[in-house]
Amino acid sequence: xxxxxxxxxxxxxxxxxxxxxxxxxxxxxxxxxxxxxxxxxxxxxxxxxxxxxxxxxxxxxxxxxxxxxxxxxxxxxxxxxxxxxxxxxxxxxxxxxxxxxxxxxxxxxxxxxxxxxxxxxxxxxxxxxxxxxxxxxxxxxxxxxxxxxxxxxxxxxxxxxxxxxxxxxxxxxxxxxxxxxxxxxxxxxxxxxxxxxxxxxxxxxxxxxxxxxxxxxxxxxxxxxxxxxxxxxxxxxxxxxxxxxxxxxxxxxxxxxxxxxxxxxxxxxxxxxxxxxxxxxxxxxxxxxxxxxxxxxxxxxxxxxxxxxxxxxxxxxxxxxxxxxxxxxxxxxxxxxxxxxxxxxxxxxxxxxxxxxxxxxxxxxxxxxxxxxxxxxxxxxxxxxxxxxxxxxxxxxxxxxxxxxxxxxxxxxxxxxxxxxxxxxxxxxxxxxxxxxxxxxxxxxxxxxxxxxxxxxxxxxxxxxxxxxxxxxxxxxxxxxxxxxxxxxxxxxxxxxxxxxxxxxxxxxxxxxxxxxxxxxxxxxxxxxxxxxxxxxxxxxxxxxxxxxxxxxxxxxxxxxxxxxxxxxxxxxxxxxxxxxxxxxxxxxxxxxxxxxxxx
Length: 600
Description:
Blueprint: H1 2-8, H2 11-46, H3 54-81, H4 87-137, H5 145-164, H6 169-187, E1 217-223, H7 229-232, H8 238-244, E2 247-248, E3 252-253, H9 259-268, E4 278-281, E5 301-304, H10 313-318, E6 323-327, E7 345-347, H11 349-354, H12 363-377, E8 382-388, H13 408-433, E9 439-445, E10 450-451, E11 457-458, H14 465-468, E12 472-475, E13 482-483, E14 488-489, H15 493-501, H16 515-518, E15 528-532, E16 539-544, E17 547-552, E18 557-562, H17 578-588
Parallel strand pairs: 1-8, 1-9, 2-13, 3-14, 6-7, 6-8
Antiparallel strand pairs: 2-12, 4-5, 9-12, 10-11, 15-16, 16-17, 17-18
């Protein structure tokens, strides 16, 4: 007996066993990597908005294979060397790991938008473990090992070259991140999804503006990330001058903490809760590249209203003789993005040559482009839209308006002052060429900016007041300057402009005309809504009667603020005003709060 055991432990006997286990591990690696690579390619192909050449798909397949092999390797080794003996245990472990794979995909669908790298690594690990262990648990015999090892070798080599060459890690992450959640959002019901907000009944329209009082030039100015207090508290600069000569709405709010949703609402009067925004790979144009497309930049993934065909401000102005012009300065302010599909004159020079990746200086060039557009109009009625993106991060330093300090807020203030400097030049030229008595100036912003007021920075993450409140000015010699302390939305801008010039209204708009307020009259109060469209934390907010309710859809949490006594939102008053929480929850379509729902 002892002699037999010694023989079994002899090195010559152990080597075949180790070799068999190693070959089995490599075969498992080939099986699982190949399966996952097929899944990667399949989900890429299912992405309706991703376009790629056949060669790009081949390279992507090898890149996916190599990445999957990196994930699978440790699990393949464990599965080959530590396979359980009992078949019932193997089957049970296989079912469990398959469930873990499903859970991992659910995590990916819920959280990948902002925290993609961390959660997608978890997805890859769980999916690889599931595939390998399920394969090992069934006890399927490994056959034709050498052919599989050849496949593994070719795949890993070519995949590594693809990852390090044409498809580097950034490109791989960008392309891969677009697909799985989109597919799952179609196949599975969305967790925490909110229904559309019911549209309020529109009041009867007031008398249209007389034909002779129409402005020749409608100058629509939007400034990226412009906080409301930069205009409300401005002293002695362009913003203060324009504010004091306009109808000023200091409590205007945007509808989303992101540019695309807000500007689309500005053009259509529709809130994001009534528009389907698709997660899309928008091809960034690069004039230096032959294809004019930069596939490697991860910032080309945007939420765009590609399939919505709502009437727009530009379309309605065509009906009353206005020519519509826009100087684009940001990637999604292109015809592909849906924001300017009805504009007549589109000049993309500022965007293509100076702000391709949102890191350029544009105010001076944008002003020059706008003046050239006015010159080309030769005095004909015109809508000119200029979006100034300079205050957006990374907060560059300009020689003309140096910051007062080194903080992010100081640099941001310098960027806003830089925009104001060139707005002054724009308005001076408009006064000379068109005349301010024949011009309607509308100034607003897509969203605000946060500098640690509630622990965050920039925007796109919360629905707090420093993000939602934006300036809103209507300046014209035909309108008496005044301050209107009434909650309004940027969704009201397009309906207001259209009524001022006697154009047809927008059907199914969530916004309403503010013409009565512009002319010194009154308008009934009504709620103002906003929505955060993020897969990991969808939220909706409503401001009504001095209170603001924020509802977090996934956690079903309610946060109520008393803006009259706490305008900076420092304390929740949810527990003290359950009746108000219930009323506002019904307005935004949230489930009625009960003691079983968390309030904060």
